[in-house]
Amino acid sequence: MLPEDSVAQTICFRSEALTDFCRQLLTRSAVPTEHAQLVSDSLVAANLRGVDSHGIQMLVPYLQQLTGGSGVRAQAMHVDGTLLQDFWIEQRPRALHVLSAPSPAATASLAIAREIVKRLP
Question: Is 5 inside any structural domain?
């Protein structure tokens, strides 16, 4: 709780600047650029929709996981034994599968939807 004499301050950023900031942090943590852009778009889109719990506040935990600083999560493995990065999209003749997404909210993101639509015939 803030002391009575304190003044709450709201700072606004352009969504494009926040997306770029998130993408840069993720790519500097060895996330492939395409995946970093999808995650960044999804995080900022969540904030813009008012779902702050799934917005850029998740960036710090994601970065900590990337650097081994916290938590363990399941990760999909390719048949050749390599670990799949988030948002692996597998295309079959009559189906498109989003694999290894970090959360159900991620699979429902507009950024991933746009990527899927780009891959449709």
Answer: no
Is residue 3 assigned to a domain? no
Scanning the chain, the segments in alpha helix (DSSP H) are 15-28, 33-48, 59-66, 104-107, 110-119
For residue 97, give its domain range. 15-119
Q: Tell me if 10 is assigned to some domain.
A: no
pLDDT digits (tens, 9 = 90+) for 32-58: 888 899 999 999 999 998 888 888 988
Exposure class string for 63-79: b at 16+ Cβ within 10 A, else e:
beeeeeeeeeeeeeeee
**Tens digit of each residue's pLDDT (9 = 90 or more) over 75-106:** 677 778 877 766 778 888 888 887 766 665 66
How many domains would you assign to the chain? 1
What is the phi/psi pair of residue 77, to 5°?
-120, 135
Which residues are CB-neighbours of 69 under 8 A, at least 6 positions away? Answer: 63
CATH number of 28's domain: 1.10.1530.10
Burial class (CB in 10 A: 0-12, 13-18, 19+), 51: exposed
